[in-house]
TrEMBL record:
It comes from Sphingomonas gilva. This is Beta sliding clamp. It is found in: Cytoplasm. SUPFAM superfamilies: DNA clamp. GO terms for cellular component: cytoplasm; DNA polymerase III complex. The lineage of its organism: Bacteria, Pseudomonadati, Pseudomonadota, Alphaproteobacteria, Sphingomonadales.
Length: 373
């Protein structure tokens, strides 16, 4: 294999693929990126951790077709440190990859491409397109609620499913995530081709890699899936992932429908108030107390080791006054996703789940479990 590629092109491609590669690997070849030079020109870069695989096509002048695997992180670090505008020559021979750029040269050990594992996709019967912006919204407004608890592995991702219960009976696609303390759900119109789609749980790592790639996409993303695999076609890059093999809980049961106490409040001043008083909250509970009175909301924190703090924030509230406590970090995560000028907080009592949304037409809704304070 022999090819010449511009440093910026190589760096961008490697930055996408190397982040899939785990830093610590028991299987040496999983530390490597597969570089394949096609006779008609261009390089294919590929990396995998056996659950997630990325393939990226980059422009390059190819003198000799061939394929080789080499340490992903080492090659990325070299490309990062090469001078801007450099032309990088890659040549594989005798178990080494020779890299030359200007006065720089190095030789890295390689492993044969035949040993490189590839995720077998099998049939992906459901396929549809989503605008990149919609996909970003689905991820950004739910990702923070993904559980990091490995024992409940079926919560370690975003749950995607289709339903018929949209406004006016319109079919919808829903994305949901929960860690047992809070729930985030976003609803968008069901895209053409998604009817009959199986319920799937997209793993957290795939969600993170996909989100990074979406920043460089303007148009639509092709999504193909089966009950066990999902593939995102982002033009130059294709991301394929195994899905989480588990059953996502019926989260609709925890979405309260009878919360009759409504607080309407500016999310920015609410967020800033929570942030300020929670500065002294204990690291373990991060508890903030919210005392609701007619059109007056008092946020307070009392910590045995750090003292006390309180702040009044303006809001519209006409129901009976009471006190409720929340984990301040969870509350801030949710408020950070609210884009409008008003957020509605629907409450029942100090022990019941609280519903938070911009308004009833908003595509996103959040449920937050209160805590004792």
């Amino acid at each position: 294999m022999k090819a010449t590629i511009e440093r910026a092109t190589l760096l961008k491609g490697l930055s996408h693929v190397q982040s899939v590669v785990e830093r610590r690997n028991t299987i040496p070849i999983l530390s490597n990126v597969l570089i394949e030079a096609a006779a008609e020109g261009g390089l294919k870069l590929m990396a995998t951790d056996l659950d997630l695989q990325i393939v990226e096509h980059v422009a390059a002048a190819v003198d000799q077709a061939g394929a080789i695997t080499v340490s992903a992180h080492t090659l990325f670090d070299i490309a990062r440190k090469l001078p801007e505008g450099a032309q990088v020559e890659l040549a594989a021979a005798e178990g080494r990859l020779a890299i030359a750029a200007g006065r720089y040269s190095s030789k890295l050990p390689t492993l044969p491409r035949d040993d490189f594992p590839v995720i077998a996709e099998g049939e992906l019967p459901t396929s549809f397109e989503l605008p990149a912006e919609t996909l970003k919204q689905l991820i950004d407004k739910t990702r923070f609620a993904i559980s990091t608890e490995e024992t409940r592995y079926y919560l370690n991702g975003i749950f995607l499913h289709v339903a018929e219960d949209g406004a006016g009976g319109q079919p919808v696609l829903k994305a949901a995530a929960t860690d047992g303390h809070r729930l985030a759900r976003v609803t968008v119109p069901r895209p053409d081709g998604a009817e009959g789609m199986p319920d799937v749980i997209v793993p957290r790592k795939c969600v993170g890699e996909l989100r990074k790639l979406l920043d460089e996409i303007d148009g639509s993303v092709g999504i193909s899936l089966s009950g066990t695999k999902i593939r995102f076609d982002l033009g130059q890059a294709i991301l394929t992932s195994k899905l989480i093999d588990g059953t996502f809980p019926d989260y609709s049961r925890v979405i309260p429908t009878g919360n009759d106490k409504t607080l309407k409040i500016d999310p920015k001043s609410f967020m800033e108030g929570v942030d300020r008083v929670s500065t002294i909250a204990s690291e373990k509970t991060r508890a903030v107390k919210m005392a609701l009175d007619r059109d007056r909301i008092t946020l307070s924190v009392a910590s045995a080791e750090n003292g006390t703090a309180a702040e009044e924030v303006p809001g519209e509230y006409a129901a009976q006054g009471f006190e409720i406590g929340f984990n301040s970090r969870y509350l801030l995560d949710i408020l950070g996703q609210i884009e409008g000028d008003i957020v509605e907080v629907h409450l029942a009592d100090a022990a019941a789940p609280t519903l938070i949304r911009e308004n009833e037409k908003s595509p996103a809704l959040y449920v937050l479990m209160p805590m004792r304070v």
